[in-house]
Amino acid sequence: MPFEIIRDDITRVAADAIVNTANPNPVIGAGTDSAIHRAAGPELLAAREKIGKIPVGSAVETPAFNLPAKYVLHTVSPAWMDGAHGEEALLRQSYDAALALADRLGCRSVAFPLLSSGSYGFPKDRALSVAIGAFTECLLTHDLRIILVVFGKDSYSLARGLFGDLRSFINAQYVEEAEKAEYGAPYAESTRRRRAARDTALEPQAHVFARPKAVRAEAEELFDAAPCLQAIEPEAKPFFDEVSHIQAIEPGAKPSDLDSILKGAESTFTEHLLDLLKECSEKDSDVYRRAEISRQLFNKIINKKDYQPSKSTAIQLALGLRLDLVETQKLLEKAGYALTRSSKADLVVQYFIERGEYSIVVINTALFDCGLPLLKTGSAN
Fold this sequence. Notes:
- The chain is an alpha/beta fold.
- The protein has 3 domains: 3-157, Leucine Aminopeptidase, subunit E, domain 1 (3-Layer(aba) Sandwich); 166-229, no CATH class; 239-369, no CATH class.
- The chain is built from 15 helices and 6 strands.
- It has helices at 32-40, 42-51, 87-104, 124-139, 166-183, 185-202, 213-225, 255-263, 269-279, 284-290, 295-302, 311-320, 325-334, 344-354, 360-369; strands at 3-7, 17-21, 59-63, 71-75, 109-112, 145-150.
- It has a 6-stranded mixed sheet, sandwiched between helices.
- α3 runs parallel beside α4 (124-139), α5 packs antiparallel against α6 and α10 crosses α12 (311-320).
- The chain is elongated.
- It starts with a strand and ends in a 12-residue tail after the last helix.
């Protein structure tokens, strides 16, 4: 799994390397630094003292000692001042330095805290945005499992300011689908039109960039009450294992009619995927890397005419190909699936596709923030 985001104590995460938010000087700092030193044992500080001072934006390694890892990568990230002193560039440099060091050491997995977002005071949404950029770029060229480990009471609201109106979008779509199921399509459509007319009437003039306070308060109330913020229990079955759309054959079909139906079957998922790859001007490797699936799984899919992917794999390939919403639905249909408005997980995917955002790191971060199952990146079907 190339990218994961989990809620845990980083000192308990098994990985080849664990990234530490180190103090520039060989002393034990607060927060993550203190926790890592405590779990690793006194040998870690002795090894750190041999290194001496570490410049901001760089990274060095030591053994991990008692931690469930091979290495601790000590990176010095910047403290937040006011955003006008190159803090974001320095933070990106810290991530890049740690990732490059992990690559040089031959690590296959590396666990990160959200650098600078604790005692260094970096706003969490901006810190997360920098992390997402670094991870996305790294995964396009490296076979590395990156684990972002968050800890604390606000771990499910990391992206509250990062993804704009995502929750409002989810709520509006989900409510409309629920109304359609309960009251029928005509009622739902009339309700949608009334809401659209109300929103248009309340929309500010073109030169005004903020919504009226009353409207913003209503949106924030919906945001805070969103059921998608409920954490998923560890035992919960991943949504993406479920088949959500299967075309039924008309009842009472005679054998001869069934033969005709089967002869007229459209292309399979693999055949359609191969057509899309031919139309694409990029290399296959660019597509499966963006899709965050392994080369082995990709080869398995394209070499088996009747391959049946999981829904997650089908979605990831659509993202890797950068398909629009119509093209995505067509590819999913070939595998027997669909994006529906009755699924919050589907709505998150739809939200980003409609905005031309195809980074699986971004989408999985949003799914995590909403307490929903992540796309299952990696080598699994």
